[in-house]
What we know:
single chain, alpha+beta, two-stranded antiparallel ribbon, elongated
Amino acid sequence: MTKQHPQDHEEISNRLKDVDRVNAALKRAARDAVQEHAREGRKIVVWRDGRIVWEDATIEEAPKQ
Length: 65
Protein backbone atom coordinates (compact mmCIF):
# COMPACT_ATOMS: atom_id res chain seq x y z
CA MET A 1 0.00 0.00 0.00
CA THR A 2 1.36 3.41 -0.88
CA LYS A 3 1.56 6.29 1.53
CA GLN A 4 -0.89 9.06 0.78
CA HIS A 5 0.03 12.70 1.01
CA PRO A 6 -2.36 15.62 1.56
CA GLN A 7 -1.25 17.18 -1.72
CA ASP A 8 -2.38 13.99 -3.54
CA HIS A 9 -5.91 14.55 -2.27
CA GLU A 10 -5.76 18.20 -3.28
CA GLU A 11 -4.62 17.27 -6.80
CA ILE A 12 -7.46 14.78 -7.20
CA SER A 13 -9.99 17.29 -5.85
CA ASN A 14 -8.78 19.92 -8.30
CA ARG A 15 -9.04 17.53 -11.24
CA LEU A 16 -12.56 16.46 -10.28
CA LYS A 17 -13.68 20.09 -10.27
CA ASP A 18 -13.25 20.19 -14.04
CA VAL A 19 -16.62 18.56 -14.72
CA ASP A 20 -16.37 18.85 -18.50
CA ARG A 21 -13.06 16.96 -18.62
CA VAL A 22 -14.34 14.32 -16.19
CA ASN A 23 -17.47 13.78 -18.29
CA ALA A 24 -15.42 13.59 -21.49
CA ALA A 25 -13.10 11.00 -19.92
CA LEU A 26 -16.06 8.90 -18.74
CA LYS A 27 -17.65 9.02 -22.22
CA ARG A 28 -14.36 7.96 -23.85
CA ALA A 29 -14.00 5.07 -21.40
CA ALA A 30 -17.56 3.89 -22.00
CA ARG A 31 -17.15 4.13 -25.80
CA ASP A 32 -13.87 2.22 -25.63
CA ALA A 33 -15.49 -0.52 -23.52
CA VAL A 34 -18.41 -0.89 -25.95
CA GLN A 35 -16.02 -1.02 -28.90
CA GLU A 36 -13.96 -3.71 -27.19
CA HIS A 37 -17.11 -5.77 -26.62
CA ALA A 38 -18.11 -5.29 -30.26
CA ARG A 39 -14.70 -6.46 -31.52
CA GLU A 40 -14.96 -9.56 -29.30
CA GLY A 41 -18.56 -10.26 -30.33
CA ARG A 42 -19.86 -9.84 -26.78
CA LYS A 43 -23.15 -8.25 -25.80
CA ILE A 44 -23.52 -5.28 -23.47
CA VAL A 45 -26.12 -4.57 -20.82
CA VAL A 46 -28.22 -1.41 -21.22
CA TRP A 47 -31.19 0.19 -19.49
CA ARG A 48 -34.09 0.46 -21.95
CA ASP A 49 -37.72 1.33 -21.22
CA GLY A 50 -37.28 0.72 -17.51
CA ARG A 51 -35.69 -2.69 -17.97
CA ILE A 52 -32.22 -4.18 -18.14
CA VAL A 53 -31.59 -5.77 -21.54
CA TRP A 54 -28.67 -7.40 -23.36
CA GLU A 55 -27.91 -6.13 -26.84
CA ASP A 56 -25.18 -6.44 -29.44
CA ALA A 57 -22.40 -3.92 -29.06
CA THR A 58 -21.69 -1.78 -32.09
CA ILE A 59 -18.54 0.11 -33.00
CA GLU A 60 -19.18 3.82 -33.36
CA GLU A 61 -16.83 6.43 -34.65
CA ALA A 62 -15.36 8.80 -32.08
CA PRO A 63 -17.09 12.18 -32.17
CA LYS A 64 -15.06 14.94 -33.78
CA GLN A 65 -14.13 17.64 -31.31
